[in-house]
């Protein structure tokens, strides 16, 4: 089993990775929970249309935040590969690929939000357009969960890499792996048993804790003395 050596280069890469991870967490949660979530009610097309049209800047800012998150994810995917490739090159490369696929899906899926905005901003109070816009908003949610399938696999791989690294505590690896299981389960429910998604939603709190803990560990990776 290979281990990482504690070096100034590793510490520098880890801190940059931690900054990107923090950006991803803040932007992702901010876009979904703070900006977009309060505007959307998938059971109320007119109400959702009214809320979005009343706060166009907020809706567009959510799109921008998701785009920043996706761009940061690309950078983080490459950095984590550089950090962990000496632990298990094939596994680190695979983890990078799965994270990059997730970033591409998340970014491409923003077109569904843009389509909803174009429909609402050009249709006024037309009921058919409002209903169609709601379909695009729902499609975005499904596309986001599709991206999380790939991220769930990435998290399992990252958990194994962190566990084997010899530098990061194994608890971080276990946390990331468990987060991966949560992502895979939650996304699976979204597609095969959507009526259970709401009941499972609190489990995502585990992913926030696990990823935030690893983010902080990366940020405060000490240099060699």
UniProtKB/TrEMBL annotation:
Keywords, alphabetical: Membrane, Transmembrane, Transmembrane helix
UniProt key word Transmembrane helix: yes
Transmembrane regions listed in the UniProt entry: 20-39, 59-84, 96-120, 146-164, 171-193, 199-220
InterPro entries, sorted: DUF4386 (IPR025495)
UniProt keyword annotation of Cell division present: no
Superkingdom of the organism of origin: Bacteria
UniProt name for this protein: DUF4386 domain-containing protein
Species name: Thioclava pacifica DSM 10166
């Amino acid at each position: 089993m290979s281990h990482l050596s504690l070096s100034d280069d590793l510490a520098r890469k880890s801190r940059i990775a931690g900054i990107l991870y923090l950006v991803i967490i803040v932007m992702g949660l901010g876009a979904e929970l703070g900006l977009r979530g309060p505007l959307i009610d998938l059971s109320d097309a007119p109400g959702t249309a009214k809320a979005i049209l009343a706060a166009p800047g907020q809706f567009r800012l959510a799109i921008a935040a998701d785009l920043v998150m996706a761009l940061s994810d690309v950078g983080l995917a490459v950095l984590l590969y550089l950090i962990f490739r000496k632990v298990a090159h094939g596994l680190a490369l695979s983890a990078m690929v799965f994270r990059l696929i997730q970033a591409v899906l998340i970014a491409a899926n923003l077109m569904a939000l843009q389509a909803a905005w174009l429909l609402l901003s050009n249709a006024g109070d037309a009921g058919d357009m409002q209903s169609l816009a709601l379909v695009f908003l729902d499609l975005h949610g499904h596309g986001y969960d599709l991206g999380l399938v790939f991220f769930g696999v990435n998290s399992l791989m990252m958990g194994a890499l962190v566990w084997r690294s010899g530098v990061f505590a194994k608890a971080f690896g276990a946390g990331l792996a468990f987060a991966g299981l949560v992502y895979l389960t939650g996304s699976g429910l979204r597609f095969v048993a959507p009526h259970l998604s709401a009941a499972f939603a609190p489990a995502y709190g585990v992913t926030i804790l696990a990823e935030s803990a690893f983010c902080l560990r990366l940020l405060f990776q000490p240099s060699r003395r």
